[in-house]
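A quick word before the example. In earlier lectures we treated sequence and structure as two separate objects. From today on, think of them as two lines of the same record. Here is Tripeptidyl-peptidase 1 written that way.
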Amino acid sequence: LFISVSAENVNDGDFFFFFCSSRIPGDWSRVGRVDPTQELELTFALKQQNIDLLEKILLLVSDPDSPQYGKHLSLQEVADLVRPSELTQKLVRGWLQSHGITNCSTVHTRDFLQCSMTSAVAETLLPGSRFYRYVREGQSVIRSSAPYSVHSEVQQHLDFVGGLHRLPPKGPSVSTEQQSSKAGFHLGVTPSILRERYNLTSHDVGSAENNSQAVAQFLEQYYHPADLAEFMGMFGGSFEHLSQVDKVIGTQGAGKAGLEASLDVEYIMSTGANISTWFFTNPGRHESQEPFLQWMVLLSNMSDLPWVHTISYGDDEDSLSTSYMMRINAEFMKAGVRGISLLFASGQSEEKMWSDGGEMSFFFVFLSPYVTTVGGTSFKNPFKVTYEVTDYISGGGFSNVFEMPDYQVTAVKKYLQTAAADLPPQAYFNVSGRAYPDIAALSDNYWVVSNRVPIPWVSGTSASTPVVGGMLSLINDQRLLKGLPTLGFLNPRLYKLQGRALFDVTEGCHLSCLDEQVQGKGFCAAPSWDPVTGWGTPDFASLQGFLSE
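And the structure line, produced from the sequence above:
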C-alpha cells in the first residue's frame, strides 16, 4: 500500500542513496509534476543517542519483578537521554541552511526537524527526488517515487527524511456484514454486552482526576460529537459516562464522520467510561506530510499526554525501510518509558498475504516489540453471550524484521511445539520473529452510531482495540487513586500472568493464502498463547485485581 524505501542504501562518492521502489498503489493516480514553487514540509529524523540504554530502562520500568518497576521518566529525562549530539544538530542544520532552508521547527527531544521549502529546493537538497501529485477519491498528496540521496557527511546523522515516499492506505480495517436476527437473542455487540462478557459492573467507571485516554486517527477520519452523544444516549444508560471528548488535537474535518473514528471513540469511552478522552486527528497540514509520523512527532513534544493510546492503523513491513522501522520503534520506546501504553490493532488476516512469482508467502504489519497488539474474537453463538472463538479476520503471526523479545520466548516456543502439527510450512513465517497479537477482545458485530445513523454488524480488530484500551484505562484509574504509577508498557507484565485473568480462546483459525499447501488456513488458536488471539480476552474483574496492585 505504500511506496517503500529499501533497506539497502548505497554510498556513491559524496552522496548516500536511499533506494525506493517505483511501485505505486493501484488506487492512487499520478496527475503530474508539482509546480517548482509548491510549498512542502519535510521531516528530518536526526540520529538519537543512547537507544540501547533507553531500551534497557524501558524493560526495567516495565518488569514487575524489577526494583525499577513503574519509575517512569519525564519528557525532559527522555530528552536528556536521546537528544542528538551537538555535532549531529549542527551538521544537519548547517546542511539545510546551506540550501536556504531556515523555516524549521523542532521538538522537545530535538530529534525531529520539520522544515518548509519549495519542491525545487527539496529536489536540490535531495538529489534524485522528483515530486508529483497523486489523487484518490478527492484526496491529494505530494510524494516522490524516485530514489533520493543526501550528502555522505550528513547521512550518518539522519535516520530518514519523511514526506517523500509513503502513500496512505485506502482506509481502515472495519467492515459491515448483515446477519439475520433471532427473537430473544442479542442483536449485536453493545457496551452492555461487553460489560456482561468481560465482567465489568456498572460501578467500573473512572474517577481519578489525573487519568486520561486517547484514540488516534490518520486517514482523514473524524468523529461527530452528535454521534457520540446519541451513542451514549442509546447504549450508556446503565453506567456513569461522559458524552463529550475533552480535547481534540489537530483539526476536525467538516465532512462526514468516519466509521472507524466513530467506532474507536464510542467504544473507548463506553468501556473506559467516565475517563477524560482525547482525540488525535492527523490528516497532515500539508500534502507532503505523513499523518502517522506527525503523531509520533507530537508525542515527542507534549509533556502532558493521555496514559493509554489506541491505534487502529498499521503499515506492512515489506513497505518500509529498516531505518524507518527502527526509528519508529525507538519512538515507541520513548512513549513506554514515560508510562504510556500504546495499543495497536492486529489488522485483518486476509490483508497479510502476497504472491511472489507464484509462490505464496506471508508478510505482516509493521510490528514493534514495544507496543501491545490486539487481536479479534467472535461469540461461538453470534446471538448469545457465550464463550469466544477466533474471529477469522484477526491478524496474527510473526515479524520478519523484529526479533522475538525475551518476554514472549517461553510462551511462543510452547505454542510452536504443541501446535506443530497444525502450523503452516516454516517457509511461510519467521519462527524467530516478534509474535503477535498479545491479547484479544470481541471484534465482530458491533453497533456504531455514525452520521446520526445507528449501524449494526461493524467488525474488525479496530473494534477490539479500544475495548481493551478502555479496560486498561480503568485499571490505571485504580492505580492512580492508590498513588501507584500507570501501567505503561504492558507486555512484560502481561506475559508473566501466563494467561491468568484472561479467557483462553482455543477454537478457530484465521485466513491465509489460498494456495495448494495451506488452502486458506492460517494460524489456529490453542491453549495459552497463540498467534491469533494472544493470551485471550480480559476477565476484567480478575485482571484488575492482578494489575491494580
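Notice the following. The chain has a mean pLDDT of 86. We will return to this example when we discuss secondary structure assignment.
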